[in-house]
């Protein structure tokens, strides 16, 4: 270990106090407007200049080359400070790690330092209107034309695409190969001729989701990530990083939680305000929520260590992913029960995002691959149970039946 | 189970497993169901020789650990016992041993020696049913100690009693006049509990453990140790149940295909796998915190107890369901596990009790 953790902690504490503003924890909403993204980039620049960007990223690509433990120490110390949390998922914890895994030397040198400086935001162009679970069935098409590829089709549910610089985009490049063998991953500039980005309004009022339409978009051949027709390997790796990130185990997440951008509701405070803190049933619910959160973290530690040490296969990353999805569903229900009517009809002046959280309850069980897909993965690739029947197995993709009314 | 074992731990675990498989397989457990104590003293002595009673005792007192973290080592024994629904009084004996050691041994050296050698068994009572009234330099104890594990079979009883001035703990010989154990039935085939009546039991100052001052902190520590060992045992039990139930799903066919090929069932196995790993994770975290006497030890012990208690019973019931009709027969072994995890769930504090403890810590 290049730097001992306790002195690292003290140095980080001092630096944070001197360089970053604190947040009051009042539940300020961030995440759906250009200003918040601009602010995230600025904050990342400050972190970068202070030597706290990409703590666990290799030095040669602009990181600090330290251990996940250093990142974790820094994250603990950064609690209460304004941090560029928007950049965690997917830029730091999913897309950039995939470039680290599969990128050419030039791609790594072009993108990673820029990402860690806050100059480049990356997003995932994976899901399509025809479906997200069956990702390998993508029908967005890229056709080779000399030194260029030409992209046509549409991606959807891409979080934050409107504010991003590049999308990691899965497209079909061979229609006669079986579905997994005809895919290629591209690093696509978001703001360029032929790309139209439309924002989609969510139930909670945010417009973070986007749909992109590609109309003869020109992509240089040097922007292929991984091998031509080897896109599924890259996609699998992206999904692995994604499960790890949304499960809470990414070593690349900077500052607190990967996903939560708004502070967790303080259930003790909610119960006190509602005059329910002495109710034994309410107290048990508060404890249950805390227990689930604690065990979620403990499971992350166990599975991360298991995968690192080889005691568990990579697909075990779906265990904490499923745990975080299902326990968050339960914890949102508990928050409503503890808050009572104030959850849905907040008193004047009180922050009122519990109801909106409830409306988005299933988001956590869909984004990053659904809970059902996680259960498929655990049963098939951790427990070794038979794979589901697939009607498209080994069939040239051009002959695979598609949905009646593609979305 | 802890994921990363040292070589010594790995070897020890294997030795314990082989011993239990040879000396107390499930067929033997079924036989022991008819014995009053539910276990054999000679068997327990062999276990003690293997180290079951040494891990919480420092070397200078004749104990020793494998990894330097005695509670984590001892949790391995508990897990292996869970895998085979073993009999014995691992929890109370080790809790009492740890209490004597923590209190500086004092006049309890002989008892400690006998417990460590496996010659004697101890029971432990941490409830509030006993009062101690000062009398003639010592105390007189009255009341009923309910639900005492191995209470009718122990040679020593560590009893917690209320005084006008906090708690006191006394280590009494089972032969002390005024002690009357009454056996209770148990859902578990081999784990015995008793209520112990205390009627003007004379307890001289030399029976005090931890001196004549409030024992509240000592009792907390004992509860944490009990919780870790008990949840480790439960984790071992569900590990084994999940193992043979998964195998069953591969071997059992309906409609010409294995149960393991049906998505509805695969998804339930995925959930169970998640509960199982989460249980191991929280037990390991609790064991580590209690071992290190972390300021979070009480909280993490209760987190583990509440989580494992609920999930383990749910997991075994789901596994019963996966078995079909055979799952509710006397012949199939799964009920031995269901009995054990259910008794573990509801003793040393129910999940609900432990949630309330967690809430008290959060709202404090
Ligand atoms: C908050 C959020 C953020 C997201 N961010 C991104 C992003 O940045 N980039 C991106 O590309 N996508 C993103 N997504 C999309 C997400 O990956 C998809 O929504 C998800 O993969 C499911 O795909 P779908 O919506 O097409 O549903 P479908 O695939 O049509 O699935 C519908 C339902 O059927 C179930 N189902 C489908 N197939 C099976 C099966 N074989 N077995 C059992 N059940 C099955 C699913 O679990 C689901 O419940 C995001 C989604 C959310 C909610």
From TrEMBL, chain A:
Gene3D superfamilies: Acyl-CoA dehydrogenase/oxidase, N-terminal domain, Butyryl-CoA Dehydrogenase, subunit A, domain 2, Butyryl-CoA Dehydrogenase, subunit A, domain 3. Transmembrane segments: none annotated. Residues 34-119 form the Acyl-CoA dehydrogenase/oxidase N-terminal domain. Keywords: FAD, Flavoprotein, Oxidoreductase. Residues 126-217 form the Acyl-CoA oxidase/dehydrogenase middle domain. Pfam families: Acyl-CoA_dh_1 (PF00441), Acyl-CoA_dh_M (PF02770), Acyl-CoA_dh_N (PF02771). Its cofactor is FAD. It comes from the Bacteria. InterPro entries: Acyl-CoA_Oxase/DH_mid-dom, Acyl-CoA_Oxase/DH_mid-dom_sf, AcylCo_DH-like_C, AcylCo_DH/oxidase_C, AcylCoA_DH/ox_N, AcylCoA_DH/ox_N_sf, AcylCoA_DH/oxidase_NM_dom_sf, Mycobact_Acyl-CoA_DH. Residues 229-383 form the Acyl-CoA dehydrogenase/oxidase C-terminal domain. Belongs to the acyl-CoA dehydrogenase family. This is Acyl-CoA dehydrogenase family protein. It comes from Phytohabitans maris.
UniProtKB/TrEMBL annotation, chain B:
The keyword Protease does not apply. Residues 6-103 form the Acyl-CoA dehydrogenase/oxidase N-terminal domain. Its EC number is 1.-.-.-. GO terms for molecular function: oxidoreductase activity. SUPFAM superfamilies: Acyl-CoA dehydrogenase C-terminal domain-like (SSF47203), Acyl-CoA dehydrogenase NM domain-like (SSF56645). It comes from the Bacteria. Its cofactor is FAD. InterPro entries: Acyl-CoA_Oxase/DH_mid-dom_sf, AcylCo_DH-like_C, AcylCo_DH/oxidase_C, AcylCoA_DH/ox_N, AcylCoA_DH/ox_N_sf, AcylCoA_DH/oxidase_NM_dom_sf. Residues 231-360 form the Acyl-CoA dehydrogenase/oxidase C-terminal domain. It is an enzyme of class 1 (oxidoreductase). This is Acyl-CoA dehydrogenase family protein. It comes from Phytohabitans maris. The lineage of its organism: Bacteria, Bacillati, Actinomycetota, Actinomycetes, Micromonosporales.
